[in-house]
Amino acid sequence: MKEISVTRIRDAVTKMVQDINVNYPKDIYQLLKAASENESSQLGKDTLQILLDNADIAANEHIPVCQDTGMAIVYVKVGQDVHLIDGDVTQAVNDGVAAGYEAGYLRKSVVDDPLYDRINTKNNTPAIVYTEIIPGDDVIVEVKAKGFGSENKSTLTMLTPADGEAGVIQTVLDTIRNAGPNACPPMVVGVGIGGSFDYAAVLAKKALFRDATIPNSNPKYAALEKKLLKLANETGIGPQGFGGDTTALAINVEYFPTHIAGLPVAVNISCHITRHAKEILS
To answer: Which helix (H) or strand (E) holds 258?
Structure first.
């Protein structure tokens, strides 16, 4: 059995939280550049070019792409043939987040009590940490820095099976329209369908970790993604809400089996940056 120290997870997280706050993910930059070339509205085109200029300045000068440097969401997928040593995994992740946000001079946005005291923890921890056991002897670490201008516009709706595809589409479009300019479009939208009340939201978040240029492997859901993206861009919200063809860069759908009486649908809105990264520890 392979041994992997949790200090490697800590160090990977430290590096990734800094990197994703300074450099656009390649998939998002690619989609943003394509959108800027295809946008028919001149104001929309100019706005997209400003976003691209912002991305280039951030990367070249090593400064955050946005003042909201997000709450850290971390997936740790552990191979079943791995023995993790040297400490607690969750603590290692939080140590990595704290070190990364300190070293990168990134804004700390986490408060300890969500309702009453709301005192800033001053190191952007704790992170939201998910663990998963997978085949093999690697550890996969995936990190997202999720801003809350877009997170606040996300929804969870318990549809019934009779609502069908039309109900799902309506739910997604209603969420996008309600988000409007407040989610810093063009958005990337994660949609979770199925599971249970709680797991639909997990699916929607997982969808935002997927490369936005890669469609769902199931042809039916890939077709749904394409249809949703077309309809979203027909809303006319456009870049930063100024109007145009580019309201969303991508809509990723993930699904899971559900109860015969249910059709949970979660819609997780993300801004045009959609910061995410992955590292494999072998």
So the answer is: strand 248-258
Preceding amide of 126 cis, omega within 30: yes
Strand stretches in 97-199, DSSP E: 128-134, 139-146, 155-159, 187-195
Using CA atoms, how far residue 138 sits from 3, 28, 79, 88, 101, in Å, is 10, 26, 5, 17, 26
**pLDDT tens readout for residues 134-186:** 999 999 999 999 999 999 999 999 999 999 999 999 999 999 999 999 999 99
CA distance 51 to 89: 36
Cα–Cα distances (Å) from 29 to 25, 34, 52, 59, 146, in that order, read 6, 9, 8, 12, 17
Number of Cβ atoms within 10 Å of the Cβ of 263: 21
Please report the domains of the chain, with CATH numbers, ordered by start residue: 2-22+65-146 (no CATH), 149-274 (3.30.1330)
Over residues 82-111, mean pLDDT: 98
Locus of tokens 């990197």:
19
Split at pLDDT 50, 70, 90, the class of 1 is: confident
Alpha helices in 62-144 (DSSP H): 89-103
pLDDT tens for 72-83 read 999 999 999 999
